[in-house]
Amino acid sequence: MEVPCVRVAREAGEATRTTLADADLIDDDYEIAVEDGWLYIPVTDPDPVQAVLEDGEIVPRTVDERDTQTTPADLLAFEPSYERLGRAALIDEDDSERAREIADAILESDLPVGTVLNKASKVKGETRVRDWELLAGEDTEVVHREYGCEFLLDLAEVYFSPRLATERHRVAEQVETGEHAFDMFAGVGPFAIPFANRGAECVGVDINDDAIDYLRENARRNGVEDRVTAINDDVRDVATDYEDWADHIVMNLPHSADEFLEAAVTLAGDDCVLHYYDIQHEDDPFGPGERAIRAAAEPEYDVTVETRHTVRSYAPHELNVCLDVRLER
């Protein structure tokens, strides 16, 4: 079957394979092919490969299907639900026996996983962290890679969602070298680090001091510490220090971002794009956010909604959405 493959010289094959594996981009359903001194490594999605491999050439190639690897479902009588975050698997099971059964199957499968965590509470408090039950592994700290960036984080101390990787990449591609980008709820840096990688100067603010420590470490890990300023504070108390500064503002606090719009308007420069996240009923998912932004920004700014984007379904009849809104003074 013809699938997208990274073509690389044989002598560079192992280094390339390792880089792609670390980014979870290798399509394990197919074999790596070798021909005329070239390796052809099947990949799941060509787009993020370009962010991971500067010189990666992607070509269509007919390759053999791989012998089926053992999955957790092969070892169970059902298809378990789990998320991957680095070398950790995240499950959500109320039944302790079922949780243990799933954890054992994940570890016995061919998945490259050494840690299994079970959600032990809902997201709570202003730092949006949750409790975890450690079913396998040493601790709750993981290394996650997406679109060429590496993030160290402790799930018990900070909020992080691997499901938003594609959305973060969508926004990052709008940021250009030399621009000023401000993340009002920065966490460990999943927006700020890609922005800085694209050459922007970034400020990330978070009320969680552990998240800010990880943001600083992740800026160092990704070689962008000179372009990232990390601040542990309530962004409403910081905004006046960066008045009229921002070309892009990220407001990824979907349950209560509207409470911070006055601060966002303070931060906005003469021509600024606001990336505003919201959770609303499917009957009118974008209206409440747009009205709140207009109430805060007009008449000082002309307000233009450039993108109305549904990120994902959040709950029955509720959508997680993003409004990309241009503010022009």
From TrEMBL:
<dbReference type="InterPro" id="IPR056744">
    <property type="entry name" value="TRM5/TYW2-like_N"/>
</dbReference>
<keyword id="KW-0489">Methyltransferase</keyword>
<dbReference type="InterPro" id="IPR040601">
    <property type="entry name" value="Trm5a/b_N"/>
</dbReference>
<dbReference type="Pfam" id="PF02475">
    <property type="entry name" value="TRM5-TYW2_MTfase"/>
</dbReference>
<dbReference type="InterPro" id="IPR056743">
    <property type="entry name" value="TRM5-TYW2-like_MTfase"/>
</dbReference>
<feature type="domain" description="SAM-dependent methyltransferase TRM5/TYW2-type">
    <location>
        <begin position="82"/>
        <end position="329"/>
    </location>
</feature>
<keyword id="KW-0963">Cytoplasm</keyword>
<dbReference type="InterPro" id="IPR029063">
    <property type="entry name" value="SAM-dependent_MTases_sf"/>
</dbReference>
<dbReference type="GO" id="GO:0002939">
    <property type="term" value="P:tRNA N1-guanine methylation"/>
</dbReference>
<dbReference type="InterPro" id="IPR030382">
    <property type="entry name" value="MeTrfase_TRM5/TYW2"/>
</dbReference>
<dbReference type="GO" id="GO:0005737">
    <property type="term" value="C:cytoplasm"/>
</dbReference>
<keyword id="KW-0808">Transferase</keyword>
<dbReference type="Pfam" id="PF18093">
    <property type="entry name" value="Trm5_N"/>
</dbReference>
<keyword id="KW-0819">tRNA processing</keyword>
<protein>
    <recommendedName>
        <fullName>SAM-dependent methyltransferase TRM5/TYW2-type domain-containing protein</fullName>
    </recommendedName>
</protein>
<keyword id="KW-0949">S-adenosyl-L-methionine</keyword>
<dbReference type="GO" id="GO:0008175">
    <property type="term" value="F:tRNA methyltransferase activity"/>
</dbReference>
<dbReference type="Pfam" id="PF25133">
    <property type="entry name" value="TYW2_N_2"/>
</dbReference>
